């Protein structure tokens, strides 16, 4: 009896181990349920993150966060190249294709035009008067104020005007449109170093016509449903600023041969 009891004790021990294993197995079942629930929660978290980012972007202070501007710099070089080619064909209304605005391309286009105005403006002065030539450093702040003003500040004001009239243009769309429209003036600035005043005027007028048609064609879709009077006011404001920019471009930087 004692031997059997001794035999039963290991069985009891093994039995207790089996119970422990069963309890461990049941414990394994619970973590498996938790593990099954965790992937679901992991799947929900990525879905909630964009919403949280959107809430941050649309919040009152979202405009001061980096995440707010990240979508506008998420662009490939192929897309920027395609948009630059469309600028040279100004009658194509598929430029923004309602709508994929970016700020990467416009920033570099505007900066390139500023650089070319500084370099080509001084080069024109050198060609016209090599004996008394001095580098004119005022071209840099003047070019930056003119190009960034017409490429960033004016589009923001224009988008506000369109919004007040009932149109559908955001500031980022307007900046993107005006930024890319300046691409033709990069070519004009480089060619304006040729020392012929009449050729410079032809090239500058070409840049004015190309960029103005490009802006009109691509912005007309946002104002076509407006009353005719409001529509003509918007187009007139754009045209006046384009003329002012053309004259400033020519007279401030390439008027040395006239």
Describe the model.
The protein is mainly α and 258 residues long. The chain has two domains: 2-69; 78-253, no CATH class. Helix content is 76%, strand content 0%. The chain is built from nine helices and no strands. Helix 4 (104-128) packs parallel to helix 7 (183-191). InterPro entries: Yip1_dom, Yip5/YIPF1/YIPF2. Residues 43-54 have a biased composition (Low complexity). Belongs to the YIP1 family. Residues 96-245 form the Yip1 domain. It holds the Pfam family Yip1.
Mean pLDDT: 76
Low-confidence stretches: 1-58
In terms of DSSP E residues, the strand content is under 5%
Number of helices: 9
Strand element count: 0
Question: Fraction of residues in helices?
Answer: over 70%
Largest sheet: none
Amino- and carboxy-terminal Cα gap: 127 Å
Shape: globular
**Which structural class is indicated by helix and strand composition?**
mainly alpha
Task: Give the topology string: H per helix, E per strand.
Answer: HHHHHHHHH
Protein name: Protein YIPF
GO molecular function, one term: small GTPase binding
Subcellular location: Golgi apparatus membrane; Membrane
Pfam family, one: Yip1
């Amino acid at each position: 009896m004692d031997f059997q009891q001794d035999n039963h004790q290991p069985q009891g021990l093994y039995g207790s181990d089996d119970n422990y294993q069963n309890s461990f197995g049941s414990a394994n079942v619970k973590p498996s349920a938790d593990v099954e629930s965790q992937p679901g929660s992991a799947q929900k978290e990525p879905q909630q993150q964009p919403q949280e980012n959107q809430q941050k972007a649309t919040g009152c202070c979202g405009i001061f966060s980096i995440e707010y501007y990240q979508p506008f710099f998420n662009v490939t070089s192929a897309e920027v190249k395609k948009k630059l080619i469309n600028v040279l064909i100004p009658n194509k209304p598929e430029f923004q294709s309602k709508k994929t605005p970016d700020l990467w391309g416009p920033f570099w286009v505007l900066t390139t035009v500023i650089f070319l105005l500084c370099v080509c403006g001084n080069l024109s002065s050198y060609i016209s008067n090599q004996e008394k030539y001095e580098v004119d450093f005022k071209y840099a702040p003047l070019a930056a104020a003119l190009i960034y003003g017409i490429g960033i500040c004016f589009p923001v004001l224009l988008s506000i005007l369109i919004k007040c009239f009932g149109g559908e243009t955001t500031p980022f769309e307007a900046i993107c449109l005006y930024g890319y429209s300046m691409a033709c003036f990069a070519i004009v600035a480089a060619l304006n170093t040729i020392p012929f005043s009449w050729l410079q005027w032809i090239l500058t007028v070409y840049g004015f016509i190309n960029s103005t048609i490009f802006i009109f064609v691509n912005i007309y879709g946002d104002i076509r449903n407006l009353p005719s009077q409001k529509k003509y006011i918007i187009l007139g404001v754009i045209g006046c600023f384009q003329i002012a920019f053309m004259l400033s471009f020519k007279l401030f930087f390439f008027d040395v041969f006239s």
